[in-house]
Amino acid sequence: RYWAETLAERGMRTDEITLRMTRAEIGNYLGMTLESVSRALSRLARDKVIGFATKGRRDVQIPDVGALSAFVQRCLAPAPAMLQ
């Protein structure tokens, strides 16, 4: 959410970004496979957290920055302790 505020302060769009790296480059940077990156982006799109503006799928629409932020926070939250 902070990046969105920074973009807004600069007068830039917060509801759409262009991926400058390919999915393979993103995967390499994050230590993930291309398939994992594609599955993650597809899941975000399926859950309507993001959308793709063009057929090339490099322009990513973010209809609700708060929903994206909440999604990320849920993913970063520690897993509940298992009962033993």
Determine Rg (CA atoms, Å). 15 Å
Unreliable sequence segments: none
Number of strands: 3
Strand order of the largest sheet: 1-3-2
In helices, the fraction of residues equals: 40-55%
CATH topology: Arc Repressor Mutant, subunit A
Tell me, briefly, the overall form: globular
Largest sheet: 3 strands, antiparallel
CATH architecture: Orthogonal Bundle
Distance between the termini: 37 Å
Q: What is the element layout, followed by pairings?
A:
Layout: H1 2-9, E1 16-18, H2 23-30, H3 34-46, E2 51-52, E3 59-61, H4 65-76
Antiparallel strand pairs: 1-3, 2-3
Descriptive notes:
The protein has 84 residues and is mainly alpha-helical. It has a single domain, classed as Orthogonal Bundle (Arc Repressor Mutant, subunit A), CATH 1.10.10. It is built from 4 helices and 3 strands, in the order αβααββα. The chain has a 3-stranded antiparallel beta sheet with strand order 1-3-2, covered by helices on one side. β2 and β3 form a beta hairpin. The protein starts with a helix and ends in an 8-residue tail after the last helix. The model has no long low-confidence stretch (mean pLDDT 85).
List keywords for this structure.
4 helices; mainly alpha; 84 residues; Arc Repressor Mutant, subunit A; 10% strand; single chain; 3-stranded antiparallel beta sheet; globular
